[in-house]
UniProtKB/TrEMBL annotation:
It catalyses: Endohydrolysis of (1->4)-beta-D-glucosidic linkages in cellulose, lichenin and cereal beta-D-glucans. Its EC number is 3.2.1.4. It comes from Escallonia herrerae. PANTHER family: ENDO-1,4-BETA-GLUCANASE. This is Endoglucanase. It comes from the Eukaryota. InterPro entries: 6-hairpin_glycosidase_sf (IPR008928), 6hp_glycosidase-like_sf (IPR012341), Glyco_hydro_9 (IPR001701), Glyco_hydro_9_Asp/Glu_AS (IPR033126), Glyco_hydro_9_His_AS (IPR018221). It holds the Pfam family Glyco_hydro_9. The active site is at residues 408, 459, 468. GO terms for biological process: cellulose catabolic process.
Length: 488
């Protein structure tokens, strides 16, 4: 009997140890993922790189941007795997980086991640100050996209036209101008605690750019559409960007004018479930909801629409409006699906915190969605991205044991300048694009477009819809990872 009890004890200990090992293996290192998600932005930098640059296979690029138009437009970010600076999605990425810090930055205090995140925001806002430096002019794009997309070359080698495209009083672009205003206003809140002079500069410029966007209304589709389309056409109109910018300006200033602007115009927006670089509708409602809940104001229609957003996303909701893969990844129509997973998860996580502070829940007909349920949903999406999925693949480059190796990204897929100092011209990069070899340079932290709706991922450079990373996928993920690192 003693021998059996002894053997049983060993068996129980073996099971316990095995369970602990499995749990540790299955857990996500949110801190590591956070650091890498921020590092990604250094790999997307355009312009003169600083001595502190950590992605060392990248070098200076596009050092004469804007000079042909008599303005300095050096800096900013390449949005994805190409070499064009599309200011509309760049501004949205900046706004979401700033929101990540204003909402979850406390979870990053005392770490190098916070400093690197501030640097990531400032790399963009410094550029946007340049892009809005001329009265009555807002630069919306740098780089002729058709010629750029016909070449596969490193940003350091670019020999395609670096034309700068602007919107003006006579050729307006309210959506791109208002999104830049939102980015500057949101960033001014971030820097208020770190550099008050810079914060004031950002806020002053945000106000001026908003006035320009609101006074001279029109879509940049009509002004410079032959260059911004089909890449980043505005398909939702510019009204949402105007309200989004006003909401951020109100958050930064508490000025009655901006609050009145939002409340009097919110009824012009019919959607409540869209959120991303093109459509800000759901983000407006969630952002405003915090102010409403704190101050016990009339909630119509902001809280109602924020609740509808929740009910359109949660899988158990009777009014579900999205699809899910068998492994649980949220899906919406369009390219680069992972942008929906990160952006919408960010909104639900932020809204959960606001609801919890007000001791409220969301009622989806007969289903009650508590703040903790919203948080679990967001964590599930983040965990999927980091490898908790049927193929056990991390969709963040450099994170985990298995991740994409052949991402659709010029700089990553071509030999670095350090390894191949000779110029690689437009078509000289084609063999590298067509190769089945892994990319020679790891773009650490890049999150690709993700698998298809059946949880399948081909890891093909040519399959850009699934293998291309973008700044607007990573930006909201920074906030999500910051939260879950502190609350894992």
């Amino acid at each position: 009997m003693a021998g059996k009890r002894h053997g049983s004890w060993h068996l129980r200990m073996l099971v316990l140890v095995s369970t602990v090992v499995v749990m540790r293996a299955a857990s996500r290192d949110y801190g590591d993922a956070l650091s890498k998600s921020i590092l990604f932005f250094e790999g997307q930098r355009s312009g003169k790189l600083p001595p502190t640059q950590r992605v060392t296979w990248r070098r200076d690029s596009a050092l004469a941007d804007g000079f042909g138009q008599g303005v300095d437009l050096v800096g900013g970010y390449y949005d994805a795997g190409d070499n064009v600076k599309f200011n509309f999605p760049m501004a949205f990425s900046t706004t979401m980086l700033a929101w990540s810090i204003t909402e979850f930055g406390k979870s990053m205090v005392g770490t190098s991640d916070l400093q690197h995140a501030l640097e990531a925001i400032r790399w963009s806002t410094d550029y946007f100050l340049k892009a809005t430096s001329l009265p009555g002019v807002v630069f919306a794009q740098v780089g002729e996209p058709n010629s750029d997309h016909s070449c596969w070359e490193r940003p350091e080698d670019m020999d395609t036209p670096r034309i700068s495209y602007a919107v003006t009083e006579k050729s307006p672009g309210s959506e791109v101008s208002a999104e830049i205003a939102a980015a500057l206003a949101a960033s001014s809140i971030v820097f208020k605690s770190f550099d008050r002079g810079y914060s004031r500069l950002l806020l002053q410029r945000a106000s001026k750019v908003f006035d320009f966007a609101d006074t001279y209304r029109g879509s940049y589709n009509d002004s410079i559409g032959q260059w911004v389309c089909p890449f980043y056409c505005d398909n939702s109109g510019y009204q949402d960007e105007l309200l989004w910018a006003a909401a951020w300006l109100h958050k930064a200033t508490k000025a009655t004018f901006y609050w009145t602007y939002v409340t009097e115009n919110i009824h012009n927006l019919s959607s409540f479930t869209e959120f991303g670089w093109d459509a800000k509708h759901a983000g407006i409602n969630v952002l405003i909801s915090k102010y409403i809940l704190i101050n016990s104001l009339d909630s119509a229609p902001f809280l109602q629409n924020a609740d509808k957003l929740v009910c359109s996303i949660l899988p158990e909701s009777p009014t579900l409006g999205v699809e899910y893969s068998p492994g649980g990844l949220l899906f919406k129509p369009g390219l680069c699906n992972m942008q929906h997973s990160t952006s919408l998860s960010f909104l639900l996580l932020a809204y959960a915190r606001y609801l919890k502070s007000a001791n409220k829940v969301v009622q989806c007909d007969n289903v009650v969605a508590t703040p903790s349920r919203l948080i679990r949903f967001a964590r599930g999406q983040v965990d999927y991205i980091l490898g908790k999925n049927p193929p056990n693949t991390s969709y963040m480059v450099g994170y985990g044991r298995k991740f994409p190796q052949r991402i659709h990204h010029r700089g990553s897929s071509l030999p670095s300048v350090g390894q191949h100092p000779e110029h690689i011209d437009c078509k000289g990069g084609t063999p590298y694009f067509s190769s089945n070899e892994d990319n020679p340079n790891l773009l650490i932290g890049a999150v690709v477009g993700g698998p298809d709706i059946n949880d399948s991922y081909a890891d093909s450079r040519a399959d850009f819809a699934h293998s291309e990373p973008t700044t607007y996928v990573n930006a909201p993920l920074v906030g999500l990872l910051a939260y879950f690192r502190a609350h894992s």
